[in-house]
Design a protein that fits this description.
Largest sheet: 9 strands, parallel
Distance between the termini: 19 Å
Order of helices and strands: EHEHEEEHHEHEHEEHEHHEH
């Protein structure tokens, strides 16, 4: 099973420094962060678009900064983006959190704003992350299908935050309409099934025999999921033993589906460090070394 590993976001000043992610020489070169990131990982999940803050020119700039012929020469070495680098981009809040009867107009606006990514062939999917109040009903499931129809042929990835969505029946029903249900790993207090829990493929929604799988690793920090801010909620570093178990789960999956694993525990560069760690563990599983 091919596993594509990346992080949720990349534009974090606290990721710069020794033993972190971005080399110290990039401290004052923020415009080069994405180029360096694309040399290290095969995919990025862009979340800033949730706020509606994008336009075609902005995404065109991101595409240029991740072209494989773009070379970044630093004191730490020379780096170039991977030729297979992919984007996943989060849908606007007006499509997930503040839905109005004019949502099709909002989707048309969103699609227009990201059109350069669509045209590039490097957009792996659109992420629609819904709030915990988004219950699983025939109406909400139908809405997800309609969203998928509006953004097609781009893949729609849906991340609800209620446990009733995470069943094989719901997952398969959505998949029948081209909707990917994201698996999650989060604190117990989130009341969502954990993708990392051994053998819990029914709840995780991550390893079924579907055309593609998607997992978001939010960390397991307890006590801040409901009350913390965006920083404290995702402040967590997975241990080597946790990731080793997850790597074995991924390798043991009977699915041949392409699987994306995106780390959202972004505080203190934990996401980038854990993503690299998981990649090494998976490579070890493949080689037996």
């Amino acid at each position: 099973m091919p596993v594509i590993i990346g992080t949720s976001g990349y534009d974090y000043p606290e990721w710069v420094g020794e033993e972190l992610f971005y080399p110290p020489s990039l401290h004052k070169r923020r415009g080069d962060w994405l180029t360096y990131y694309a040399s290290q990982f095969p995919a990025i999940e862009l979340n800033f678009t949730y706020y509606g803050a994008t336009n075609p020119r902005q995404v065109e700039g991101m595409l240029k900064r991740t072209e494989p012929d773009r070379r970044l020469s630093l004191m730490e070495g020379d780096f170039s983006p991977r030729p297979d680098f992919l984007f996943i981009i989060k849908a606007y809040a007006t499509l997930t959190h503040n839905i109005t009867p004019e949502w099709r107009d909002d989707m048309a606006h969103f699609r227009s704003d990201i059109q350069p990514l669509i045209d590039s062939g490097r957009l792996a999917g659109v992420l629609a992350q819904f709030p915990s109040r988004f219950r699983m009903t025939s109406q909400t499931a139908t809405y997800c299908v309609r969203l998928a129809e509006e953004i097609a042929p781009v893949r729609l990835i849906v991340e609800p935050r209620r446990s009733e969505w995470f069943t094989a029946n719901v997952r398969n029903a959505l998949a029948g309409h081209g909707v990917v249900l994201a698996g999650v790993d989060a604190p117990e207090e989130s009341h969502m099934p954990r993708a990392l829990d051994h053998g819990n493929t029914e709840g995780a929604g991550a390893f079924a025999s579907l055309p593609v799988n998607y997992v978001r690793m939010h960390g397991r920090r307890e006590g801040s999921w409901w009350s913390g801010d965006a920083a404290s909620r995702y402040e967590y570093r997975y241990s080597n033993s946790q990731l080793d178990r997850f790597a074995r789960q991924l390798q043991a999956s009977p699915s041949d589906a392409e699987t994306f694993v995106m780390f959202n525990n972004h505080r203190h560069a934990d996401a980038a460090l854990n993503a690299k760690q998981l990649r090494k563990l998976l490579d070890r599983e493949l080689t037996g070394v």
